[in-house]
């Protein structure tokens, strides 16, 4: 759980409780908090002995994620931000696909400044899944730790698209569970829909330019 902006304790507690309610119980919780944020986090340890708190001066989401992954001892990583809520069966449902797939997302609902549901590609991700943008929602992912290599970009859609498309081109298997397994809280800090359509298209085009060899090409090389 990367906390890079001021959030309420209520939102943190809401997300933590949804983790603790999971039917899948073999996990640790790592929370990174930007040291400039003024908030009392002493209560967090009362929730579970599985919680590790990391204080850092990092203020960018993906830099924070990269920093926190170094503290992870397990092979798989999942992400949650304050205000996100996991259904009780989220991890257990995704874990069923872990022997066949390397990155497992799901459908999700949105809460906060926007409502509605994600428009994702259900099932196995193929190249066409990337035609209209990023086909997976970061905060729904269960992903192998060794594959968590986001580049730092200003806009989330660019960083997510870059990494997922590159990993797809390298032959890693990506899959979206069609079932809604969580709700993601939309704020002004993570709402990529505030970008104009033109800007989103430019970001997607720029990301794809780095990976011009199509995965299905007979002349495919390692990306």
Structure description:
With 223 residues, the protein is of the alpha/beta class. It has one domain: Spore Coat Polysaccharide Biosynthesis Protein SpsA, Chain A (Alpha-Beta Complex), CATH 3.90.550. The chain has five helices and ten strands, in the order βαββαββαββββαβα. α4 packs parallel to α5. The radius of gyration is 17 Å and the shape is globular. The two termini are 30 Å apart. The C terminus is likely disordered.
Summarize the structure.
With 223 residues, the chain is of the alpha/beta class.
CATH class: Alpha Beta
| Measured distance between first and last alpha carbons | 30 Å
User: Rg from C-alpha positions?
Assistant: 17 Å
Tell me the strand percentage band. 15-25%
Helix % is 10-25%
State the CATH superfamily name. Answer: Spore Coat Polysaccharide Biosynthesis Protein SpsA, Chain A
CATH topology: Spore Coat Polysaccharide Biosynthesis Protein SpsA, Chain A
Instruction: Please count the helical segments.
Output: 5
Which outline best applies? Answer: globular
Element-by-element helix/strand order: EHEEHEEHEEEEHEH
Mean pLDDT: 82
The structure class reads alpha/beta
How many strand segments? 10
**How can the largest sheet be summarized?**
7 strands, mixed
Residue windows where pLDDT falls under 50 for at least 5 positions: 191-196, 213-223
Count of folded domains: 1
